[in-house]
Write a structure and sequence with these properties.
Blueprint lengths: L5 H10 L1 E4 L5 H21 L8 H15 L1 H12 L2 H8 L4 H7 L8 E11 L26 E7 L11 E2 L12 E3 L8 E3 L2 H4 L5 E2 L7 E5 L4 E2 L9 E10 L24
Antiparallel strand pairs: 1-8, 2-10, 3-8, 3-10, 4-7, 4-9, 5-6
């Protein structure tokens, strides 16, 4: 694992983010994406789509087709991958802890807590799960200060403007956690905590364009948003958030188990 230089740490403290190039071996990502393709293939065959597809076709055109045919099947694929042992092993074997420790100015790894490991799947021209300008510290309340927690954003394929890579406001983490507009989500649309436009307008905007295997780490108070995927391919990323459990304000989250009903029209 590539280490951080003192310049990287200073850049993070000043700008609220840092990019670590080639942080994740490509063969590790390829193994994960082959598994993702196998889950897509499983559901495709259940829906009567039984052609001999390549991994790339399954990851992109087949998944896009499934989403158009049946959103519940698409949701089942997403939730199944996120709850799989293979995905969780991938996340917890990223070996980013030493980097995270430096960026959070911790004394040791025993102070680290994690929350919300997730594979994100952004299909073209679908904005239902896009988040407007926001701070992750509104969604994840483990620590009061954004500087005591961070997001790792792992690129499982190239991320660029056309396929909806994130946009950030460098240095905006210095605002702290802001008062934001809360928009309640629904079964098909994500909940939102939207940062006021007068705050957004104070900052320059940067599109984060990175390659497969790169990792972006950013402060939980950094203002950012999801870009619009206007390409013909799916953008795959993975995230896990780290926080400092030794802080007096640390609140360990509780999780509840929910089993939604999926309307998936199988063929016989």
């Amino acid at each position: 694992m590539q280490d951080l230089s003192s310049n990287d740490s200073e850049f993070y403290d000043s700008n609220g983010y840092v990019i670590v190039k080639n942080a994740i071996p490509e063969n590790n990502i390829d193994d994960l994406m082959e598994f993702v393709a196998s889950i897509i293939k499983m559901e495709a065959e259940r829906l009567g789509i039984k052609e001999d597809f390549t991994v790339e076709q399954l990851l992109h055109s087949v998944l896009i087709d499934i989403r158009k045919k049946n959103r519940d099947s698409n949701s089942w694929i997403y939730q199944t991958i996120n709850n799989s042992n293979i995905f969780k092993k991938f996340i917890y074997n990223l070996e980013l802890e030493q980097i995270v420790k430096k960026l959070l100015h911790m004394d040791g790894l025993k102070q680290l807590a994690t929350i919300n490991p997730a594979l994100r799947i952004d299909t073209p021209f679908d904005k239902s799960n896009n988040r407007d300008w926001h701070q992750d510290s509104h969604y994840f309340l483990d620590n009061e200060k954004g500087s005591d927690a961070l997001v790792t954003w792992v690129c499982l394929g190239d991320a660029y403007k056309e396929n909806g890579s994130i946009l950030i406001c460098p240095k905006s983490q210095k605002e702290g956690r802001l008062v934001s507009e809360h928009i309640i989500g629904s079964s098909n649309v994500s909940e939102q905590y939207v940062t006021p436009s007068e705050i957004i307008n104070k900052y320059d905007k940067l599109i984060v364009e990175v390659k497969k295997g790169d990792v972006v780490l950013f402060n939980m108070d950094l203002i950012h948003k999801t870009g619009d995927n206007v390409s013909n391919s799916v953008r795959y990323t993975a995230q896990i958030r780290y926080s400092n459990l030794s802080k007096l304000d640390y609140k360990p989250p509780q999780t509840s188990i929910n089993y939604p009903k999926y309307n998936r029209p199988f063929t016989k």
